[in-house]
Amino acid sequence: MSKLRGLLWAGMVAGLGVAAAAGLPRLARHVPWGVERWLGTFGASGAEAGVCSASAPATASLQRVLRRLYPLATDDRNVDIDVQVIRGDTVNAYATLGGHIFVFDGLLQEARTPEELAGVLAHEIEHVRQRHIVQGAVVALATWGGLRAVFGGSGNGVARTLLSLSFSREQEAEADEQGLQRLRAAQVDAAGFAHFFERGAQSAALPALLSSHPSDPQRAERAAHFRGYPTRPVLAPEEWAALRGICGSDHARR
Ligand SMILES: [Zn+2]
Q1: Same domain membership, residue 200 and residue 107
Q2: Secondary structure of residue 104 in the 3-state scheme
Q3: What mean pLDDT comes out for the span 53-64?
Q4: Enclosing domain of residue 21
C-alpha cells in the first residue's frame, strides 16, 4: 500500500516537473522587463572587458546604425537595446539578458556593407523584443549545466551560458520575420540581411553564426518577400570605414 502511494507520489512529482519544464518558456515570456534587466547585470561584465571604442567617429557610427533600427514602434519602449562591438575574430553577434547586444569584431570585418550589419542587428533586436533571450536563459539556468556554468567560478559563466543558448526553429523564424519588417520600416535594404546569411550558409567561415542562428532553407524565401520598398543608405562610406576600425588600427584585413 505504502509502495503504491510512493509510486503515485513519484509519478505526480515527475508529471509536475515535465509540466513545469514545458511551461517555463511560456512563463518566461511574461517576466517583467525590469527583472530581465536586473538579471542581465550578472552577465554583462565578462563581455565589457573586451568592448571596443577606438575613436569617437567609430562609436558615433555604431550608434547611428542602432538608432536607425531602434526605437521605431511605440512598443519598442517596452525593452531597452544597446549595442557594443567586442574583440574577437568570431563571426557572430549575440544578445544577452537586458537587451545588450554584442557584435564580435570578426562579424564587423566579414560584413561587406552597413546594411549587412543592420540585418544582423535587426534579427538580434527581435530576439530581445520577442523575449527569446529570457526564455532561453530560464530554461538553461533550470538545468544542471546552466547551474554549473553560473556557479563554476569563472566569473562570466552567465555570459557563456547565454552565448551558447540555442534558439528553436520557430524563434529563428520569428526573429527573421520581425527583423525583416523592422528593416522595411527603417527603409534599410533587406538585401543586406539576405546576403549575409546566405553567404554564411555557403561558407565554412561562418560556423559560429550558424550554430547560434541556424540557417534554414526558408530564410532566403522569407527575405525574398521584402523587396521593392524605398531605401536609404545606413551609413556614408567614411562612417562605415570608421565603424570597421572601432577595435583599433590593425583591423584592416581586407
Ligand atoms: Zn537568431
Answers
A1: yes
A2: strand
A3: 97
A4: 1-30
Same domain, 111 and 167: yes
Report how far ligand 1's centroid is from the alpha carbon of 127 (Å).
Answer: 7
- Distance from residue 2's CA to the centre of ligand 1 (Å): 50
| Cβ neighbours of 242 (radius 10 Å) | 20
In a domain, 254, yes or no: no
CA 67 to chain centre: 17
CA of 6 to the centre of ligand 1 (A): 44
* % of the chain with per-residue pLDDT over 90: 52
Q: Which residue has the higher pLDDT, 121 or 199?
A: 121
| pLDDT band of 154, cuts 50, 70, 90 | very low
Rounded Cα distance between 141 and 150, Å, is 8
Give the predicted TM-score (pTM) of the model: 0.83
Question: What's the CA-to-centroid distance between 165 and ligand 1, angstroms?
Answer: 10
Q: What is the domain count for the chain?
A: 2
